[in-house]
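Need tokens for this chain, all 193 residues.
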Amino acid sequence: MEALSEVKLGPCRDSPYLRPLRIHYTQNGTRKHWDFMQTHDSVSILIFNTTRQSFVLVKQFRPAVYMCECARRGIMPTVDTASKDCSPQSLVAGELLPASAGVTYELCAGIVDKSDLSLQEIAKEEVLEECGYNVSVGNLQKITSYRPRWLQQEGTEAYRRGTNRHTPTVCAGEPSAADYWAAGGECRGHRRS
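Here are the structure tokens for all 193 residues:
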């Protein structure tokens, strides 16, 4: 997971995960528009391993975190998003940051993109895929759904930039060592911590 090479940045023409949109409207007689990003709702799972008496976190490389760190350090190439034939721009090999600049420790989580599954069923799939625990749906309890405060506050960067107000849901589960199924977790690029 830590080896990183041939990093290129290009425009995102179509994505199943996010969609840039523009709303046109009239406010107090003035015609305006605002750009925003439509994303999926998500489910995060707070996992407590009852055998080890410890919480389980997922360690994974997040490309967006990596690129934000590149931008912060001034080494992100400029990409012409308006051009139809814009090819991805490479980061100069000597300027590449180590992959650890994009590694996060976080709750097991996933997007809510399957309308035929309940939140607990999606949580079950994510726990198996990311952490390798085969937890029953009945052993996953919904704690809450909420609107992240940082997305709601006027004046915050996310509010100004137009990130849509998605709804995360948090569930909790208590697997034991007996629930661990080796084919999940690390084989998908995730590491349990």
